[in-house]
Amino acid sequence: xxxxxxxxLEVFWRSAKGKSPQTLREExxxxxxxxxxxxxxxxxxxxxxxDYLGEEAQAVEPYRAAIATGLEPDKLxxxxxxxxxxxxxxxxxxxxxELLQLIQTPSHVYRDAQAFLALALYDAGEPQQAxxxxxxxxxxxxxxxGRPVRDYAKELAxxx
Length: 160
Hints:
This protein has a domain at 5-95: Serine Threonine Protein Phosphatase 5, Tetratricopeptide repeat (Alpha Horseshoe), CATH 1.25.40. It is 70% helix and 0% strand. The chain has helices at residues 5-14, 21-32, 40-52, 56-69, 73-89, 93-100, 110-123, 127-138, 146-157.
């Protein structure tokens, strides 16, 4: 039996594929009715559904409201990534870069944020910076050539 709200959300998202938009909206509405309407998690999940359904323009304001209302730190960084990705898709790469730069190394999604930051930098006309971010993020995961890749990333940044 599913007991917590978080577990119910996980089940909702795991089972979303193949369902109609109407069914997804109804199921999410029923689930979110357990919380107050202006709750940050409710706003975040509604924005996420808009994104999932390809309704990026409709996702922006609920993401912003969720961030402003006060999400827990882990969810806050996830919301920042999702909003940044949405903004990038809508042609607002500069805003995406600003949001993604707020996510720091202690975050559980820091590396994820760096991938989206590289994409946003590229779209913002900063391909060298994008490559640097991608290489810096990738370097620690390399088994043999991490140090030279890290050095190349430093070269791209103009530091040695």
